[in-house]
Recover the amino acids of this structure.
């Protein structure tokens, strides 16, 4: 395989990989080999960087009042009635005319989304702490019809695992993480 360009996703002779130095990484998952052969460290300074564009500064100017208000008040807005998903909210913009990259997580700036699949109690406690009311329909959905992450994890624990967890013999189980735990689902 030495000397040929190979992309695991596209097969042999993919032009996209031509500029990389061949090595063991082509035959096996070997990130270290790929990095050692193909990475060139930059040892210069920051002089190649440019400052923000006028467009970027105009968008930042529109965000500054939100930042100031959030520092003063705390959480500005929460959509407590719509659990987040990729399609839960309409597209959100800061300045639609001038944005080149878009993708707010909700339909407007500084509006937070809720993630009850990661833990309903955590969501409801966060809402209450930020002076927002938990939505009764969301509570009903996640207590009667939909499982949270923890419920799914605890459903597959054996009695032995539960005893070990309670006695702290084992730690680091999937139910112990508040952030990012849906990624592992």
């Amino acid at each position: 395989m030495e000397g040929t360009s190979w992309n695991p996703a596209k097969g042999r002779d993919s032009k996209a990989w031509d500029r990389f130095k061949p090595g063991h990484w082509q035959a096996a998952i070997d990130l270290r080999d790929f990095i050692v052969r193909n990475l060139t460290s930059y040892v210069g300074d920051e002089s190649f960087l440019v400052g923000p564009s006028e467009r970027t500064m105009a968008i930042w100017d529109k965000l500054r009042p939100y930042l100031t208000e959030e520092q003063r008040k705390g959480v500005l807005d929460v959509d407590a009635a719509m659990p987040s998903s990729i399609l839960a909210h309409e597209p959100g913009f800061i300045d639609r005319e001038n944005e080149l990259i878009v993708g707010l997580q909700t339909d407007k700036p500084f509006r937070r989304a809720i993630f009850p699949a990661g833990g309903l109690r955590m969501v409801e406690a966060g809402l209450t702490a930020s002076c927002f009311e938990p939505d009764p329909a969301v509570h009903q959905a996640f207590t009667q019809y939909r499982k949270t992450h923890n419920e799914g994890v605890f459903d597959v624990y054996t009695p032995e695992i539960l005893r070990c967890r309670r006695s702290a013999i084992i730690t680091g189980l999937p139910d112990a993480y508040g952030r990012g735990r849906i990624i592992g689902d």
